[in-house]
Write a structure and sequence with these properties.
This protein is mainly α. Helices cover 69% and strands 0% of the residues. It is built from nine helices and no strands. The longest helix has 30 residues.
Length: 201
């Protein structure tokens, strides 16, 4: 088993056992989803194996800060990565690159290099996928549980604004997901405008 595989086993185990149960979106399934998306984008973008290993490590750790809290979870994720990775032979400069990728996923996303762009696109890959509404509903349930959104109308307004302001960075994600994402924006906006019309009658 490689050092990366050992880290993967450890971190996925922690996510499965220790995350708060109300996290219906930011759970182990999301981390596995981001791992798969990051791997796919990296391959299509022609990334070498060394950088891909760092990218996938960043994907593993990117939301582990949710073990402690939502706000500032990216910085907490970096602290946890710095705590664990030296024992698995990750070098200081590799760990800093991993933390750079994790911090780039903080909303609004702010990638400064190609690896950071790929992780940002992988983290929000679902915005232009067929399972968008399934995952969006899980996020809605999670945010309702924490009192961050009030109801479906509030959620639709927040989603429409968020997705409209979102941009994919890699050519791969633009090609795969941009068209569907634009259709979803229209669908969500149509729900909002219908509500407003009904209220004004």
């Amino acid at each position: 088993m490689t050092k990366y595989q050992q880290v993967k086993e450890l971190i996925l185990g922690k996510l499965e056992k220790e995350l708060p149960s109300h996290l219906s979106y930011h759970n182990i399934d999301h981390t596995i989803d981001v791992l798969q998306a990051a791997s796919l984008i990296a391959d299509k973008e022609g990334m070498d194996e060394h950088n891909k290993r760092l990218l996938l490590t960043a994907a593993l750790f990117h939301d582990i800060g949710f073990l402690e809290k939502r706000d500032g979870h990216e910085a907490i994720s970096c602290t946890i990565a710095r705590q664990y990775l030296p024992a698995y032979c990750y070098q200081p400069e590799e760990i800093e690159a991993i933390c750079g990728m994790i911090m780039a996923t903080k909303i609004p996303q702010s990638p400064k290099n190609h690896m950071e762009e790929i992780l940002c696109d992988a983290d929000l890959d679902y915005l232009g996928r067929d399972d968008f509404f399934i995952l969006s509903n899980r996020l809605f349930t999670e945010l309702c549980a924490e009192g961050i959104v009030k109801d479906e109308e509030d959620w639709n307004r927040q989603q429409a604004e968020f997705i409209e302001n979102h941009n994919y960075f890699t050519e791969t994600s633009k090609r795969l997901h941009q068209g569907k994402k634009e259709n979803y924006i229209k669908l969500i906006k149509s729900k909002i405008s219908t509500k407003i019309v009904n209220e004004n009658q």
